[in-house]
Design a protein that fits this description.
There is one protein chain. By secondary structure, this protein is of the alpha/beta class. The protein folds into 2 domains: about 5-245, Spore Coat Polysaccharide Biosynthesis Protein SpsA, Chain A; about 275-405, Hexapeptide repeat proteins (UDP N-Acetylglucosamine Acyltransferase, domain 1, 3 Solenoid). It has helices at about 35-45, 60-65, 95-100, 105-110, 125-135, 190-200, 210-220, 235-245, and strands spanning about 5-10, 30, 35, 50-55, 80-85, 115-120, 120-125, 140-145, 155-160, 165-170, 180-190, 220-225, 230-235, 275, 280-290, 295, 295-305, 310, 315, 320, 325, 330-335, 335, 340-345, 350, 370, 375-380, 385, 390, 395, 400, 405. The strands form 5 sheets. Strands 15, 17, 19, 20, 22, 23, 25, 26, 28, 29, 31 and 32 form a 12-stranded parallel sheet that branches. Strands 1, 4, 5, 6, 8, 9, 10, 11 and 12 form a 9-stranded mixed sheet that branches.
Length: about 400
């Protein structure tokens, strides 16, 4: 059967806060040289799915520039179609509304099945196995599902199934539930069933989890496809940092194998020279990307392309994005630092106790993590304590007290 894929890539990702201030969440850098959307696009390429519509919306320039013609994922061939689909009538108001506003592309598609994906999750998945499951069970709709911790059920659509994988109940983000089987936001629809839903439901904010799936569980054949491998939503600062730093673990502990030659993660790479390591550098448990120069101390951190870390500088438990410069004697501890930041001599980012949450966003920053936006300059001998948010292009002088926001 012919498959058409749609990737929902228009959400801001408000919980990523400063990191999504100038870019959409799927375009946020990850694991040094990649973007978050690279994982979904690579899954499509490795699964042999090349007809793809990417539904963009919020600040699409960075994402559009990154994807381009789709060449890194082999999607610029004559027999493939990669389309960047931006709102042309109204702002998308829900996940299904984004498809509804582009329903003409569905009518024109020769596909039998429609695969709907999110562009902001980190995972490796062979979609062919899910599609085979859908066909074998003669389903109208198939949902990819995964068990989640009981304390996280309010973040997901939660469902129950019978012995044959048929979904018998679905609750969107319940406070409590008997089940912990969560929807991953990955759906396979028979094309006719999807078109019927988009043309039948009249909600202005039409959403798969809120409207279509709950209704179709009762009226259609909806089945679950259980995915038990690594899958993570890096939608918060702590989740983003944790997912990055997990990749620095020893080979036997890495939860997501980025070195699997049978399932490569592709990306649009910049032409940069090899990593240079100075004679006095110390590197322990780190990912170091192309074009970086490391002359200081790096421990359990992810270093993106073009980063320069000068002698006697220390970087610990941090993610440092492209073209940032850490000068001599500076200390970075437990931080996410965006692109083109300069931390001058003997400055400290991350000092003092962890127990004062950010005053403006206590639900986002509470673990001692600091976040610095693009283009920030931290002047020599300055100190940024814990749980601070520094917006793009700020100049930091003196001491920034724990829990502060600078904008």
């Amino acid at each position: 059967m012919k498959v058409q894929a749609f990737i929902l890539a228009g959400g801001r990702g408000s919980r990523l806060d400063i990191l999504s201030e100038k870019r959409v969440k799927p375009a946020v850098p990850f694991a040094g040289k990649y973007r978050i959307i690279d994982f979904t696009l690579s899954n499509c390429a490795n699964s042999g799915i090349y007809d793809i519509g990417i539904l963009t919306q919020y600040l699409p320039f960075s994402l559009n520039e990154h994807i381009g013609s789709g060449k890194p994922w082999d999607m610029d061939r004559r027999d493939t179609q990669l389309s960047l689909m931006q709102p042309h009538k109204n702002w998308y108001k829900g996940t299904a509304d984004a498809l509804k506003q582009n329903i003409e592309s569905l009518h024109r598609s020769k596909a039998d099945l429609v695969l709907i994906l999110s562009g902001d999750h980190i995972y490796k998945m062979d979609y062919r196995l899910m599609i085979d499951h859908h066909i074998k069970l003669k389903a109208d709709v198939t949902l990819a599902v995964q068990p989640v911790p009981k304390e996280d059920i309010s973040r997901f659509g939660i469902l129950e199934t019978d012995a044959h994988s048929k979904i018998t109940a679905f609750l969107e983000k319940p406070e409590k539930a008997d089940s912990n089987l969560a929807s991953m936001g990955i759906y396979v629809f028979n094309k006719a069933v999807l078109i019927e839903a988009l043309e039948t439901f009249e909600e202005e904010d039409l959403d798969f989890g809120k409207h279509i799936i709950p209704a179709y569980v009762a009226s259609k054949t909806c089945v679950a496809y259980t995915f038990n491998d690594y899958w993570k939503d890096v939608g918060t600062y702590d989740a983003y940092l944790e997912a990055n730093l997990e990749l620095t673990e020893t080979v036997d502990k890495i939860p997501l194998d980025m070195y699997d030659q049978n399932w490569k993660i592709y990306t649009r790479s910049e032409e940069m020279p090899a990593v240079k390591v100075g004679s006095k550098a110390v590197i322990r448990q780190a990912l170091i990307s192309n074009g970086s120069i490391i002359a200081g101390h790096v421990e359990r951190s992810v270093i993106s392309p073009g980063v320069i870390i000068h002698p006697t500088a220390i970087v610990r438990h941090s993610v440092i994005l492209n073209d940032t410069v850490i000068e001599a004697g500076a200390v970075i501890d437990h931080a996410i630092i965006d692109k083109n930041v300069r931390v001058e001599k003997n400055a400290v980012v991350g000092q003092g106790p962890h127990d004062i949450p950010n005053i403006d966003k206590p639900d986002l920053l509470f673990s001692g993590l600091n976040v610095l936006g693009k283009g920030v300059i931290v002047k020599a001998d300055s100190i940024i304590e814990r749980n601070c948010r520094i917006y793009p292009n700020q100049i930091v002088k003196g001491t920034i007290k724990a829990g502060s926001t600078m904008k």
